[in-house]
Design brief:
3 helices, alpha/beta, four-stranded parallel β-sheet
């Protein structure tokens, strides 16, 4: 599993997010709105999508706790080949204290 955390100012994040969406073919089915989930819920939905065959997922508006939960999930699954080719782009909330 490869995890890329994208952080910066609101303008930088908007530009980078637009670029990532273009790379994904503007397929919004490959995006997750992190604010709809708690930290554990985000990991759950990412695991469901990965198990269903998605190999690249853009996660928008992540909090620090959510990013930490995803990193811990990766640590727990490192020995399993199931998610080896999964790529997650975690876009950090700008100026978030979460």
């Amino acid at each position: 599993m490869q995890i890329q955390v994208v952080a910066g100012t609101a303008k930088t994040l908007q530009d980078r997010t637009s670029h990532l969406l273009n790379e994904l073919g503007n397929d919004h089915r490959k995006t997750v709105q992190a604010e709809a989930y708690g930290a554990n819920g985000l990991v759950d939905i990412l695991e469901v999508r990965a198990t269903d065959g998605q190999r690249e997922i853009l996660v928008l508006n992540c909090s620090r706790l959510q990013i930490q939960a995803v990193l811990e999930w990766r640590s727990c699954t490192e020995d399993m080949n199931e998610f080896e080719d999964l790529v997650l782009h975690l876009v950090r909330l700008p100026d978030s204290n979460l």
